Give the backbone structure.
Amino acid sequence: MASIKANTRKVVCIGRNYADHIKELNSARPKKPFFFLKPPSSILPPNSGPVLRPTGVNLHYEVELALIMGKTLRDLDEKDEKTAMDVIEGYAMSIDMTARNTQDEAKKKGLPWSIAKGFDTFLPMSNFISSDKIPNPHNVEVWLSVNDEVRQRDSTNLMMFRIPRQLADISQCMTLEKGDVVLTGTPKGVGSVVVGDVMKAGLRVDGKDIEEGRIEVEVKGKGGLYEYTET
């Protein structure tokens, strides 16, 4: 996984792709996929230490199935499902950590919210999962627990925009390159974590756990000079 981090030039994240998640955040339902970026420096490989909570941040988790790109892709037609699946080298589980109060303020003021997504350690990821372990990425159960209490558990078949449409819309805007990571959206159940909490995440295919997809990571204080203040 460390090599995936080293080879990732960008992390593209699909937002608002599960209807119940849109409702829980009182967000508007998109007419087409929309996406934002996380820096590769936010990736936290397995066994690389804790998620670091910046001072003053209301830290939220969002579990997501990640795509690992195996080929360059540009200007994909959403109807070309074969190409969409062929360019995916494999998968990983991920937790899109979000500074929710920072994001909420930015949204209200019409400001970018890269800072809410981009802190170091804000993207814990599992080990690489080969594509043969997930024959149908639209039929995967993803889950996340905090202190062994399950907070998120849903199937990827609830995605509003399926993977070919996601890759089409992204690649019509920016070229996806080998090693890039695409996060496919989070289901309902997002919430906050505090220092001392332990998050676990994983996925099941046909009721069976995929060991490579396991994540276990603690939350600790970041320290340093940053402290959230209103913009």
